[in-house]
């Protein structure tokens, strides 16, 4: 699971709620700090690249001094990223490998949208708070300088960009208690069933009753297409959202199941695709010879068909 939201949105409340019920929390910000602590190869590499002036009097990283040098131009920023990103990636992989086999891994990534990371997750949870309310919280509760708060909010992804990747949208316009209650409902009704189906290699029962067309189905299908591309990559010739849920046009009621086609080059590629889907939350539908898979997410009924290019 990917968890994200703008600065001051309330991700920590959601993370605490999930962790209290068994989630395995991986905090991207914490990892970014860990890999450049005193004595690490990360800090040594930064000093070599940007000079000892980025250290404070105690030999720890002075982040403001680093920012002055690392964000001075695109080349310097690239140098910073080339040092820190591999270390962050390696540490994240270590933590994922250490997670229990049946754990819900909650990857808390503030810049998930900015980094185009959404397709890497079974589902993306966005905590949303209007920008003006976040500004008020940052300034009046955290004591942040108003100009700094506004700059940091404006530098992050927009609400529209976050909504485009959000499988689960949590509104934090109210109290922390209200947000925690929303998070608990999502945990019980969506995340735990998704985890259980994923672990057991099963899928939720698909809806069969037609409903009115929802224009949002197109966006959900687009996210699923991106997820399948992330999983299958070069193994697929084409991936498409097909059928009546793809166009979003008004019309007669339809069964709200997202249908997607994955076209592969040959039988070997079809078998490889089936194995990847089965291992990543798309269980094979019995009686379909491994060519039709159903998503484990009960909040996003979806069926994926593997076709061999003729």
UniProtKB/TrEMBL annotation:
Going by the UniProt record, its keywords in alphabetical order are: ATP-binding, Coenzyme A biosynthesis, Cytoplasm, Kinase, Nucleotide-binding, Transferase
Q: Name one GO cellular component term.
A: cytoplasm
The listed locations are:
Cytoplasm
Annotated residues for binding of ATP: 8-13
A Pfam family: GrpB
Pathway(s) it belongs to? Cofactor biosynthesis; coenzyme A biosynthesis; CoA from (R)-pantothenate: step 5/5
The answer to keyword Membrane applying to this record is no
Known EC number: 2.7.1.24
Q: Name one GO biological process term.
A: coenzyme A biosynthetic process
Decide whether keyword Transferase is in the record: yes
In terms of CDD domains, this protein maps to:
DPCK
Q: Which InterPro entries match?
A: Depp_CoAkinase, GrpB/CoaE, NT_sf, P-loop_NTPase
Reaction(s) catalysed by this chain, per the record, are:
3'-dephospho-CoA + ATP = ADP + CoA + H(+)
Reading the lineage from the top rank, the first entry is Bacteria
Q: Which GO terms describe its molecular function?
A: ATP binding; dephospho-CoA kinase activity
The UniProt entry's sequence similarity note says:
In the N-terminal section; belongs to the CoaE family. Belongs to the CoaE family.
Function of the molecule: Catalyzes the phosphorylation of the 3'-hydroxyl group of dephosphocoenzyme A to form coenzyme A.
Q: What protein does this entry describe?
A: Dephospho-CoA kinase
């Amino acid at each position: 699971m990917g968890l994200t939201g703008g600065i001051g949105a309330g991700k920590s409340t959601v993370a605490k709620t999930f962790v209290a019920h068994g989630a395995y929390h991986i905090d991207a910000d914490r990892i970014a700090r860990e890999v450049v602590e005193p004595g690490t190869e990360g800090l040594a590499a930064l000093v070599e690249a940007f000079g000892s002036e980025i250290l404070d009097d105690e030999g720890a990283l002075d982040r403001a001094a680093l920012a002055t040098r690392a964000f001075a131009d695109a080349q310097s920023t690239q140098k910073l990223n080339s040092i820190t990103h591999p270390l962050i990636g390696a540490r994240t992989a270590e933590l994922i490998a250490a997670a229990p086999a049946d754990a819900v891994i909650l990857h808390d990534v503030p810049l998930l949208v900015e980094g185009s990371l959404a397709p890497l997750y079974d589902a993306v949870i966005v905590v949303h708070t209007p920008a003006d309310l976040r500004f008020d919280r940052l300034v009046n509760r955290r004591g942040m300088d108003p100009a700094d708060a506004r700059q940091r909010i404006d530098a992050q992804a927009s609400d529209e960009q976050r909504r485009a990747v959000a499988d689960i949208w949590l509104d934090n316009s109210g109290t922390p208690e209200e947000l925690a209650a929303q998070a608990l409902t999502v945990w019980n009704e969506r995340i735990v069933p998704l985890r259980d189906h994923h672990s057991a290699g099963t899928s939720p029962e698909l809806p069969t009753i037609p409903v009115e067309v929802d224009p949002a189905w197109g966006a959900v299908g687009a996210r699923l297409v991106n997820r399948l591309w992330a999983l299958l990559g070069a193994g697929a010739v084409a991936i498409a959202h097909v059928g009546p849920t793809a166009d979003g046009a008004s019309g007669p009621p339809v069964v709200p199941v997202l249908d997607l086609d994955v076209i592969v080059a040959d039988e070997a590629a079809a078998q490889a695709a089936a194995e990847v889907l089965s291992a990543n939350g798309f269980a094979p539908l019995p009686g379909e010879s491994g060519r039709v898979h159903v998503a484990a997410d009960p909040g996003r009924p979806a069926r994926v068909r593997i076709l061999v290019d003729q």
